[in-house]
Amino acid sequence: MGIIKKQAFQSSVLLYLGVIIGFLTTGLLAPNLLTKSEIGTLRLLLSYSAIFMSLGILGFSTTTIRFLPQFLNKKGVNHHGFLGISLLVGTVGFLITLACVFAIKPYIIHNNIDKSLQFAQYFIFIIPLIFFQVYYTLFDSYNTALYRSAYGVFLRDFVQRILVLIGLLLVLFHYFNFEQYIYFWVAAICFPTILIFFHLVKHKAFDIKINWKQLSKPLIASMASVSLFGLLNSFGTIAMLQIDAIMVNMFMDASAVGIYVTTFYFGTLVLIPSKALNKIAPSLIVKAYKENDLDTVKDIYYKSSSSLFLIGVLILLGLMVNLDNIFNIIPRSYEEGKDVIVLIGLANLVKMAGGGNDSLITYSQYYKMTTVFLIVLVILIIILNFIFIPIYGMTGAAFASLLSIFIHNLIKFIFIKIKFGFNPYNFQYIAVIGIAILAYFILQFLPEISNFIVEILIDSIIVTILFYIPVRFLPISSEINNSIQQIINKVRTGIDGKIE
Predict the structure, then answer these.
(1) Are 309 and 425 a contacting pair, CB within 8 Å?
(2) In a domain? residue 405
(3) CA–CA distance from 186 to each of 50, 109, 124 (Å)?
């Protein structure tokens, strides 16, 4: 197995393990062990620090991936201190963000002292969070450029989440109160930076002595241009994920944020299957573009759209039929966020229906449009949140996300249609939605079962059967049918082998 494929496989396994651990922490333990305000406080610290981090790296993580090969000798060993340049840029960026933090601190404290006291008290924690996340991101991009990407995923999606899980277990067994837990939680977020530092030292990749002669004026200009592009991209990506929690707190309080982010999490379950695509599609599309094979690009776009849409509809359908039972898993006091689950689930279904549209644009000659579309999305989210949160509260924030993502994906679809002539959508997508709606209403006639775990299992199995049987006869499901048939064939082969 080639090093890139091996790293992609390892990363995918770690990502899915991270999803399981994330469910235990975000979906199960945190809502039952922490108050809504405490959960909101943690999320606000993470949101603010993530946005400042995206500014603090000054786009240099993108520059690292693009330019590091120019700083390596034939053996792939760094002799020119590129990491030193990266850390120098990161230090400047961190100092700039530090000045910004102290500039907005009085406003944040004043705005939250009455409605979100805990967040106001712990706001200062965003400084270590920013510091460690800036350097982690720079270390990780450097390590990734050296073809060791799986280690960064291991730290962020496994080690960090395991530490957060351990912290919650210590709360569960009354070893920690919230004040002790938040210190542990901050340490858990920061700890991967220390580990990746020692990882680089161990592999003799921590070379920070800069060879200034290597930095010609044209090279510096090119690196600055890519960094600016990367800054806009990283800020847009992080802001898209974090801005809604900040704006919910702006108009409401940290308790509302706690309800919002917890129920929001369940809506994001629709997106899980796309993680595998995001690991595979880019390399396939890059290869196809390099060979000027637009038919393959089209095939990937069409198949990814149909396959992810089908799986996304089924997962959303599962959430819908088990919506009431979710509040047997988390406290009933979170039911205020029931509509958030539905709206965010729909928003993520829209993303799934887009398939590999981001990769199609990003790796084409129109790659700069990815940044334009991302900035448009962030602006839409901010404007629509300002409109809908004052009217509908946290439901308004979820609706703003749905509407923003729909418009964003519609713009990308129109762009791809005009520039490439691709249109993967047809009446079969409508037929799938109709089948899902019919399956949902049939489930409503089933009697309730007293044991909610048994009810979740039974309802999920029945709705899967009701959905899959009619859908399997549609041409849109050919990829899914082929995958299922391959699994069945492997199982049969294994059984036959054991019998013999």
Answers:
(1) no
(2) no
(3) 13, 20, 11
Give me the helix-helix angle, 368-392 and 394-420, nearest 10°: 150
Distance CA 17, CA 162 (A): 10
Number of structural domains (the chain) is: 1
Chain centroid to Cα 144, Å, comes to 18
Q: Would residue 132 count as lying in a domain? A: yes
Structure confidence at residue 3 (pLDDT): 47
Give the CA angle between residues 108, 113, 118 to the nearest 5°. Answer: 90
Q: Is the pTM of this model over 0.85?
A: yes
Tell me, yes or no, whether 469 lies in a domain: no
Q: Whole domain around residue 122: which residue ranges?
A: 1-251
Angle, CA of 335, 336 and 341, to the nearest 5°: 75
Residue 449 lies in a domain: no
Q: How far is it, in rounded angstroms, from Cα 388 to Cα 354?
A: 25
pLDDT tens across 223-245, in order? Answer: 888 888 888 888 888 888 899 99
| Confidence bin at 2 (pLDDT 50/70/90) | very low
Cβ–Cβ < 8 Å for 306, 424 = yes
Q: Which phi and psi angles does 72 have, rounded to 5°?
A: -110, 145
